[in-house]
Write a structure and sequence with these properties.
- The chain is an alpha/beta fold and 194 residues long.
- It has 2 domains: 120 residues, UDP N-Acetylglucosamine Acyltransferase, domain 1 (3 Solenoid), CATH 2.160.10; 35 residues, no CATH class.
- It contains 5 helices and 16 strands.
- The strands form 4 sheets. Strands 2-5-8-11-13-14 form a 6-stranded mixed beta sheet. A 4-stranded parallel beta sheet has the order 1-4-7-10, covered by helices on one side.
- Helix 1 crosses helix 2.
- The longest helix is centred in the first third of the chain and has 19 residues.
- The radius of gyration is 21 Å and the shape is elongated.
- 20% of the residues are buried.
- The mean pLDDT is 90.
Length: 194
Amino acid sequence: MTRWWAAVRRRWQRLERALLGSVRYYRRRGARLGDVRAFSSPLLAEPHLCSFGNNVYVARDCVFLNHDGSVVMLHKMGLTDVVNVVGRIVVHDNVFIGMRSIILMDVEIGPNAIVAAGSVVTRDVPPNTVVAGCPARVICSLQEYVDKINDPERALWIESEAHIAAEVTRYFMEENHRGRKAVRLRQPGTFWTR
């Protein structure tokens, strides 16, 4: 009976999240969410222990793990009387968290930080930094990253927003160029420059 009820509850929660959207769903469960810009279906293990600032972007399939499930097994073995280990997660203003990143408990991500896709964040992220890896470590400052993407040598100029996909495909696939390019638009008034 218990497993049946747990399965029904999980399905109901998935449906509720789909109908409400991630932001409203997690706010209802106690998460503190500021002006979140993108919140693409992350998993918040303990929403009431998560806090997000303003201008935060969370890409798809990110996991925020606020507890240590292994303690349950240790408790059942009789090795400890502890039933759970929990901690908060704080994400400050102006933060981007890349796709499929995992943020562990007792982590604070400082303001103006970028967490690269696939990172496993096990300790605090300093302000104004870019972190990547497993475990995540600082790879450069935010200013160094901005300087890289603003480098005119790395620019790929495109006439308008409508031509982005065609021009990028032509440049990389048909002309067989390699490397990274910062896409820039020549035509003002597109959604990138509004």
